[in-house]
Automatic annotation (TrEMBL):
InterPro entries: ADH-like_N, ER, GroES-like_sf, NAD(P)-bd_dom_sf, Trans-enoyl_RdTase-like. One of its GO terms (molecular function) is oxidoreductase activity, acting on NAD(P)H. The keyword Transport does not apply. This is Enoyl reductase (ER) domain-containing protein. It comes from Capronia coronata CBS 617.96. Belongs to the zinc-containing alcohol dehydrogenase family. Residues 13-345 form the Enoyl reductase (ER) domain. The keyword Oxidoreductase applies.
Length: 348
């Protein structure tokens, strides 16, 4: 495979549009797979990195290959990898980091850590599978890592815990994965979304949904948690800084005043002040690669749950283009905002 030609949609500088050009074929590490990508999804962090460059992502070096969500076919297997073979259909998270600048998703062949990859059933199309990885990793990091919420692990036969979790932002990509993981781990889920998405989040397993824009959202959630044992909160919101801070503060306030575990895992930066007695920590999804939770989720739970039809790739994929030239348009479209959907590009 080493002479196989590779091509990428490359980021060559801050605020530069992606450029499609030939790049080196990645050499597989002992714990890695090389995957030929058939579909990729785009995420807010991709356009944030494009716009903000080293101002926010100090380790970024140009040219850089963006993208974290891939679905495709295994073409090479590292010497220490077990459980995968050439030809397997997989979905994987191309993690961020200074040592992985050649590992991004927006190329024909990506180098992926095997503990961040799952097999997918033949019945699942690549474009549908591609919606999963970053949302799943972010949700799993906050829900299951011991230094976050440390919840019971998910299973395809969940054991009820009798506890209820607050997921703020259930219709986001991260929230859609989090609801399903938390329910599979035996927790009831109360969530927030726009009313148009209430049926969507309930379809994923939430028991109750509340409008995060309602002026009474805090009181509504406190009322909903009355008489329940709270398992803590996972806070996710859109990309507007002020709205994200307000969402984080509101979520923390509800957890502070409810009975039960006083911790919130946040997909956004921590607000300047935390309520007394509540712990909180910012999630870094790529950090999952160093956690045993990666093996639990990618190695065990997800392949089984997909095969058993007990996990739905969500939000639903909207294929917005084909080929590497379409990726910049997908990023531009995502910047305009999405609601309960994931923008996907299929690759030749
Ligand atoms: N820290 C990490 O490692 C990490 C990883 C991934 C993502 N993130 C961050 O997590 C956030 C979500 O990312 P994503 O890809 O999941 O987003 P997304 O799916 O693109 O987000 C769109 C959704 O945001 C919801 N939303 C907007 N404002 C909200 C608010 N104030 N409260 C609750 N929901 C709100 C909208 O819900 P409605 O349409 O129902 O109104 C919409 O469905 C982003 O800020 C992203 O940067 C962080």
């Amino acid at each position: 495979m080493a002479n196989e030609s590779n091509v990428a949609a490359l980021l060559t500088g801050q605020n530069e549009p992606l450029v499609v050009q030939g790049v080196a074929y990645p050499s597989v590490g002992e714990d890695e797979l090389v995957v030929r990508n058939h579909a990729i999804a785009v995420n807010p962090v991709d356009y944030a990195m494009q716009m903000l460059g080293t101002t926010l992502f100090s380790w970024l070096q140009y040219p850089y290959i963006l993208g974290e969500d891939v679905a495709g076919e295994v073409v090479e297997v590292g010497s220490a990898v077990t459980g995968f073979k050439v030809g397997d259909r997989v979905v994987g998270h191309a993690v961020l980091g200074s040592d992985t600048s050649t590992g991004g998703a927006f190329q024909r062949y990506s180098r992926l850590l095997s503990n961040m990859v799952s097999s997918i059933p033949d019945s699942l199309a690549y474009e549908d599978a591609a919606v999963i990885p970053l949302g799943l990793s972010t949700a799993a990091s906050g829900l299951f890592q011991k230094d976050y919420l440390g919840l019971q692990y998910p299973s395809i036969s969940p054991q009820p815990t009798g506890k209820t979790l607050l997921i703020w932002g259930g219709s986001t990509s991260v929230g859609s994965n989090a609801i399903q993981l938390a329910v599979a781990a035996g927790y009831d889920v109360i969530t927030t979304a726009s009313p148009r998405n209430f049926e969507y989040v309930k379809g994923l397993g939430a028991t109750q949904a509340f409008d995060y824009q309602s002026p009474t959202i805090g009181a509504d959630l406190l009322e909903a948690f009355k008489g329940k044992r709270c398992a803590g909160g996972l806070a996710i919101a859109g990309v507007v800084p002020q709205a994200r801070t307000e969402a984080a503060e509101a979520c923390l306030e509800v957890i502070a005043k409810s009975e039960g575990d006083k911790f919130v895992a946040l997909a956004m930066p921590l607000p300047p002040q935390l309520p007394d007695g509540v712990g909180a920590k910012f999630i870094f999804a790529s950090g999952l690669k160093d956690s045993e939770v990666s093996h639990v989720i990618y190695g065990d739970y997800l392949p089984k749950a997909l095969a058993a039809g007990k996990f739905t790739p969500a939000p639903k994929a909207e294929v917005v283009g084909q080929g590497f030239e379409a990726i910049q348009g997908a990023l531009d479209a995502l910047k305009q905002g999405v609601s309960a959907k994931k923008l996907v590009v299929t690759l030749p």
